[in-house]
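Example noted here:
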Amino acid sequence: MFNMHKENSAPEGHAIDWNQLATDIRRWATDIGFDAVAIGDATLPASAEAGLAAWLAEGYHGDMDYMAKHGTKRSRPAELVPGTRRIISVRMNYRPPAALDGLSVISQGDRAFVSRYALGRDYHKVLRNRLQKLAEQIQQVVGEFGYRAFVDSAPVMEVELATQAGLGWRGKHSLLLTREHGSYFFLGELFTDLPLPVDPPLAQEHCGRCSRCITACPTGAIVAPYKVDARRCISYLTIELHGAIPEPLRPLIGNRVYGCDDCQLVCPWNRFAIDSTQPDFAVRNGLDDVSLVELFAWTEAEFSQKLAGTAIYRIGHERWLRNIAVGLGNAPTGPEVIAALQSRLDHPSDLVREHVQWALRQHQAPTPSSPI
């Protein structure tokens, strides 16, 4: 719901210079901690809605029913939040400066790879708090106004909105890209009822004939340029999927226990990616370089204590163990790996036990169905 008050009620005797306000918003956003900001219209091009409809029709959203249940509201911001006239899109870099190189971790089968965006504090909270501060700063100039902040938390086509506002272009992996910063950043939006001047989109994309992200995807989830089948995407399988991970895909996941950065790791534009300066995104609990065995030993209490306030906490201990069991099934065979898996054979969760049994079979180790 809009924080709707008196529309654009500027302080008495004060006429609003909307161009100056737009300039001030960019400055305030930078001061607050955003790395880039742009203002776009609340009307997306027809191609955005058509693309979304085709993607949903293919079933590429998998079990993410929320992607479909809002209908055209996802592609029509002014219907999603009535009264919306302009959308302020923001970008914030997240790559932790001290994190071990992702490709190095992925190449070590006994280590656990966690997507770099999830190594620190939950980004939803960080960006939402900053967007609220930006709204309050604007309010000091315009008085009470209608606004609503979004951070990957509602049916918002954030990449389309950011592209339209000129923050970057959609890469073939479907993420937003920039020549100056690559793609290691979060996006957020502030829907407003303010008649701000809009920024122009970029004149062109810069992916060219490059297809490295497509060929690098471990599960072949990028089925065509700009089109991802979430049902095959490791980020979906390890984060969004609540049930069992399809067996044919398990060996392809490798040691990626939460998310996947492969398409970003090979992108040439990420040579220019800039590390985050936000302490919130610093590595917690050594998750940039930790063994699968160590993580698998965490009790539910340890999981909750260590990961509270992070994005990982949202999936819960059960799915965390499910993911790590798959990683252990793909790890080099050794006594520590076998012992770790066997320690969870009597776990109360059917989901965990099934993945543990699968993992042990990969090592030709004893399971309840294959006694010595």
Q: What stands out?
A: The radius of gyration is 22 Å. The longest helix spans residues 123-142. The longest strand covers residues 86-93. DSSP finds 16 helices and eleven strands in the chain.
